[in-house]
Amino acid sequence: MQITSKWLDNMCFVASNELGHSVVMEGVPVEGQAKRGASPMELLLMGVAGCSSIDVVMIAEKQRQHITDCQATVTAKRADDTPRVFTEIHIHFKVFGHDLKESAIEKAVQMSAEKYCSASIMLGKSAKVTHSFELVAA
Questions:
Q1: How many CB atoms within 10 Å of residue 104?
Q2: Which residues contact residue 18 at a Cβ distance below 8 angstroms, ignoring those fewer than 6 apart?
Q3: What CA–CA distance (Å, rounded) separates 21 from 40?
Q4: Under DSSP, is residue 76 helix (H, G, I), strand (E, B) or coil?
């Protein structure tokens, strides 16, 4: 795996993977200018949301759960002092579907948290990572 980051201007960069997929990221935008991209720390949380959501959906589908949508909301707290690492991360899943079994979705969330989501497990080495979920009938 290889990522390349290229400076655009000011504190704005574009990062690309080997396949050419790219994302714009920006630190502090120029005063009076709209921010053009997420911050690198926001991108870490987006990665956690995506990684864990993929796991939950994949595991739930293997359990024959009829999911129509899955939304993950990630909230985090950071240290006050530099380096401002994450100290707490909470991932809340809102799972939509037909006749969903709470025990199945709970198991999917647990398996993602404890075994499969590399991103949240890695960040869990320095931050307290918690999970919750809710079911919504589609």
A1: 17
A2: 1, 2
A3: 16
A4: strand
Angle at 135 between CA 133 and CA 138, to 5 degrees: 145
Classify 107 as helix, strand or coil.
helix
Residue type, 99: D
The pairing of beta strand 3-9 with beta strand 12-17? antiparallel
Q: Among 96, 100, 44, 39, which Cα is nearest to 74's?
A: 44
Contact 66, 111 (CB under 8 A): no
Pick from 64, 90, 66, 92: nearest CA to 77: 90
3-56 pLDDT per residue, tens: 999 999 999 999 999 999 999 999 987 788 888 999 999 999 999 999 999 999
Q: Which residue has the tokens 């991209």?
A: 37
Hey, is 21 helix, strand or coil?
coil
Residue 95 corresponds to which tokens in the numbers above? 């799972």
Residue 89 has pLDDT above 90, yes or no: yes
Return the number of other C-beta atoms located less than 10 Å from residue 83's C-beta.
Answer: 6
